[in-house]
Specification:
This protein is α/β, with parallel strands linked by helices. Helix 5 (73-83) packs across helix 10 (209-220), helix 13 (333-346) packs parallel to helix 14 and helix 17 (430-441) runs parallel beside helix 20.
């Protein structure tokens, strides 16, 4: 009878006012700062059953890439849950990602409609269709059914993908109303309140799982008395969103490295790895420090080597590509080289990449030579802008001499270089964007053009209420939304197309349609593209382009 009483709606009052701490822990009941309903108490009782599922939702965008869907963070969450006695299942909706099913263009992108060419194709095109990547919501629910979850950890790795994440959470809550859903990941960390406003999300967890998840599990099992004791924790109290104060970051000894097989070509085994956190630089366009802090630290190399040893080995003759997602491994070059050496001992026929970008300002000639000798087969370099005034507002600088040295060393070794510009930064104008494109056009480097987008909390975007009035889809690199008044969507899309056009002119493989496209673009100083018409291809002039930008970039072409 006493046990039955403790399951009733009055249990919260008794636990809060009279039960000793020892009794709270024995009964797996947590003291709560307010009265809770019977359904909430029953929901909490289920947590002790410890049936956890970690979910990677599908994503919706114009495009995706293999390393963007590697889902590295869930490996850390899964390991921590296992260490705390939770039987863990994983539902990775992106595990078998396909080319993506077409979706109607969301209303968030109504401003793009005049610029999209549905039949466009080829290497100078913009994206044509909005897509759903990964399993459908119905397929995900069907797979989830036999897992019988009591506790779900929902991962959202970028704020721009909040919409499909919350859509899936809502469907899960409808199917499994007594399941507790905790949202986490970089997308949640920058604006947890956005997720807690959604009825399906019970809790949010911001920051790094190594420091926040173990205390959360203790709180849910009654071992911690107060939610405020959980770093990065968000919850709802009488309809009000609450957050624990203070931030705690990992140390190098705590940091869990991850290396995971990701999709690649049939003859190539591809792995993506993450071994470090934090950035001491203060570039205003980068959100790294919002989640991982401003102090660079890395894992223990021995721990990473243990993870390498546990990977299933490919055939001896197979090619292996290892991509490091970390931004700042050049901050500790001896550690980076040691890591590469350990990888090559495990996979002798391996090559290396850093597709998230290397800071060329840290690439001395000696370091370039060391990376090339160690097996780097491509340099992805973040330039940002070549205009001092624009870079000054972003707390960066452009070192032309250092950049040219990197290009020369890479060219001598036959290593391709992709240099990334960002257009649409605060202070950018048509002339500043043109200056960057002209500069790279004359160098031995392909151009990667990124269109600026903010996430909540970046300098100039600290007021997160702004993002309650803008759909999160606009916080994506493919959105071409004019977040800064100095440039328009037409300018952003023209810059994107010009970068692709310049890359095409550098190619050694050009077909007849592309040759005609190049000729007409240079002759008329108008960007052209290729469209499909009745199974045939035709070269047309791109409508609604920024004619001034094209003229500035191609004036001496």
């Amino acid at each position: 009878q006493f046990y039955s009483y403790l399951q009733g709606p009055l249990a919260a009052i008794w636990v809060k006012r009279k039960a000793p701490v020892q009794c709270r822990r024995i009964l797996f009941l947590r003291p709560v700062p307010q009265l809770v309903s019977l359904s909430e108490m029953q929901n909490h009782q289920m947590i002790k059953d410890k049936r956890a599922v970690v979910i990677v939702p599908p994503l919706q965008d114009f495009y995706t890439t293999p390393h963007r869907i590697s889902s590295l963070g869930i490996e850390i969450v899964k390991k921590i849950l296992g260490n705390h006695g939770y039987p863990v299942s994983v539902l990775d909706c992106l595990e078998q990602v396909s080319p993506g099913s077409h979706l109607p263009l969301p209303s968030a992108f109504d401003y793009l409609k005049p610029y999209l060419l549905p039949d466009e194709t080829g290497r100078c095109s913009f994206f044509t269709r909005f897509r759903h990547f990964g399993e459908s919501f119905d397929e995900a629910l069907t797979r989830l059914e036999p897992m019988r979850p009591t506790l779900i950890f929902l991962s959202c790795f970028a704020f721009c993908y909040s919409t499909p994440s919350l859509e899936l959470a809502g469907r899960i809550k409808k199917r499994f109303p007594r399941t507790t859903i905790i949202a986490g990941g970089a997308g949640v960390s920058v604006f947890p309140e956005y997720f807690l406003r959604h009825r399906s999300i019970d809790y949010t967890l911001s920051g790094e799982a190594e420091v926040s998840l173990p205390p959360l599990l203790e709180y849910l099992s009654g071992m911690l008395d107060r939610p405020e004791a959980v770093p990065g924790f968000g919850w709802k109290e009488e309809g009000v969103v609450r957050f624990s104060t203070g931030k705690v970051s990992t140390t190098g000894d705590m940091l869990m490295p991850v290396i995971k097989k990701t999709p690649g070509r049939k003859d190539t085994f591809r792995y993506t790895a993450s071994v470090s956190r934090g950035c001491a630089a203060s570039c205003r366009f980068c959100s790294n420090r919002l989640t991982h802090g401003t102090t660079f630290r890395h894992c223990r190399a021995e721990l990473f080597e243990e993870m390498l040893a546990a990977l299933p080995g490919p055939p001896a003759e197979a090619k292996v590509q290892i991509n490091f997602e970390d931004d700042n491994l050049l901050c500790d070059m001896p550690f980076f080289l040691d890591l590469i050496d350990r990888c090559r001992k495990r996979f002798p026929n391996s090559s290396f990449f850093a597709e998230n970008g290397l800071d060329y300002r840290l690439l001395t000639p000696q370091r370039c030579a060391q990376l090339i000798t160690a097996g780097f087969r491509q340099f992805n370099i973040t330039v940002g802008s070549v205009v001092p005034e624009v870079l000054a507002s972003e707390n960066r600088r452009f070192d032309a001499e250092r950049y040219h040295r990197v290009l020369a060393l890479a060219a001598d070794a036959g290593i391709p270089v992709i240099s990334y510009l960002i257009c649409g930064l605060p202070g950018d104008t048509t002339p500043t964007i043109a200056e960057g494109l002209r500069f790279l056009r004359e160098r031995h480097s392909l151009i990667g053009m990124s269109m600026f987008y903010p996430v909540p909390g970046l300098p100039g975007f600290e007021d997160r209420s702004l993002f309650l009035h803008h759909p999160p889809q606009r916080c994506a690199g493919s959105s071409a939304y004019p977040w800064c008044d100095s440039v328009s969507t037409a300018t952003l899309l023209t810059a994107f197309r010009l970068a692709r056009f310049i890359n095409l002119t550098m190619s050694n493989r050009i077909n007849d349609e592309e040759r005609l496209l190049i000729e007409r673009t240079l002759q008329r100083k108008k960007i052209h593209t290729i469209v499909r018409e009745n199974r045939r291809k035709r070269v047309i002039e791109v409508p609604r382009q920024d004619a001034d930008l094209v003229e500035m970039v191609l004036e001496d072409g």
